[in-house]
Amino acid sequence: MKHLLAIESSCDETAAAVIDQDRHVLSNVVASQDDLHQRFGGVVPEIASRAHVRAILPVIDEALRRADRKLSDLHAVAVTTEPGLVGSLLVGLTAAKTLAMALGVPLVAVNHVHAHLYACRLSAGVEVFPAVGLVVSGGHTNLYDCRTLVDYELIGSTRDDAAGEAFDKAAAILGLPYPGGPSVERAARNGRPGAFKFPRALLEPGSLDFSFSGLKTALLYEAQGKPGASAVAPELTEQRRGDLAAAFQEAVVDVLVEKCRRALVQGSRERLLVGGGVAANQRLRDRLEESLRSVRAKVHFAAREFCTDNAGMAALAWEALEQGQTVPLDIDVTPGLIRRP
Ligand code: KG4
Ligand code: ZN
Which ligand gives the minimal distance to the CA of 301? Predict the structure, then answer.
């Protein structure tokens, strides 16, 4: 049995996994930096890069130890090269190049957003392509037409904030801890989704793009008052915070559900894949399951351990490797998301 080591450091998690050729994830180690970024309410790129430098070797060692494999057992090294924070990506890439060179094994480049979708295939354990793919994370809100395991065409993306970023900012507005998604979801459990009417930006008819900045501003004004307005916002009681969280979450979910429905109908697809940190949200999961029944589509979510950033989902590298798609040791990172024609 062949094994590869996958390394992921595109944002604020330092992660490594050992994955065998049958796509079994033998170990999936994630060192979170949440405690470092918490007081800033978001990821600080310089702090993230430094933390990756400190964590990368212990995380790789731990992944090998938990998989009970040695460096000499590795057949290839896979690494996220795009998209992400440039300083963060470079740490993982440098470690991966060094290992590939020292071990004399091939290097495989992984697109992080594609890996978020591949996590759905990994979790389903059955064929899920062709499908529409939704990646909802801190950095991305993208819709893809996924033709095969490795052929993903970008068909929609956010024009401003990503869905996860909107959750993080909503949490900051409501005085809830970072990362915002889980804390807004928790607060929303005690709230009423209909208590406030927040905007749903559906954009032009047929558009598959997203926009969450108007919703974020609406929440800000409701929570803290409109600048220049004479009325002072009511005190943020536990009940009011819960209602605002629930109404905000419902607005995000409504938009995501509607865009997925549109993409499925427009592309005549019958399957939806949902990956990325926000895919861990139970309200989104329930609403998608329920709404997609009407268009006779089946939804496959990434398992929760593969939703937020991790290296296990880079099992996608096996698909590339088996097609002979390795990369040279002088490959660079590509921080931005490239909208391919
Ligand atoms: O995929 P991910 O770990 O990192 C990126 O690639 O960006 O996603 C992190 C994002 C954060 O914005 C976090 O607030 C959000 O996912 N998130 C959630 C939940 N868990 C994580 N958003 C909503 N509900 C959740 N349960
Ligand atoms: Zn991610």
Answer: 1
Return the H-helix or E-strand segment holding 124. Answer: helix 112-124
Segment 273-296, tens digit of pLDDT? 999 999 999 999 999 999 998 888
Is residue 339's pLDDT more than 60?
Answer: no
Ligand 1 and 145: CB distance under 6 A: no
Residue 138 within any structural domain of the chain? yes
Q: What is the CATH number of the domain that holds 82?
A: 3.30.420.40
Predicted confidence band at 341 (pLDDT cuts at 50, 70, 90)?
very low
Q: Is 129 in the pocket of ligand 1 (CB under 6 A)?
A: no
Task: Count the residues in the chain.
Answer: 341
Pocket of ligand 1 contains residue 182 by CB under 6 Å: yes
For residue 275, the ligand 1 atom closest to its alpha carbon is 1
- If you average pLDDT over residues 154-183, what whole number do you get? 95
pLDDT at 340 over 50: no
Q: What is the best residue among 118, 157, 308 to mutate for testing ligand 1's pocket, by most ligand atoms within 8 Å of CB?
A: 308
**Alpha-carbon span 166 to 168, nearest angstrom:** 5
Q: 84 CB less than 6 Å from ligand 1?
A: no
Overall average pLDDT of the 102-127 stretch: 96
pLDDT, one tens digit per residue, over 245-269 is 999 999 999 999 999 999 999 999 9
**Torsion-angle region of 156 (φ positive above 0: left; ψ -120 to 50: alpha; else: beta):** beta
Residue 212, C-beta contacts closer than 8 angstroms, at least 6 positions apart = 141, 158, 160, 161, 162, 163, 165, 166, 201, 252, 255
Question: Atom 10 (ligand 1): residue with closest C-alpha?
Answer: 138
Q: Is residue 38 part of a domain?
A: yes
Domain check: are 187 and 77 in the same one? no
Ligand 1 close to Cβ of residue 138 (< 6 A):
yes
> pTM of whole model > 0.85?
yes
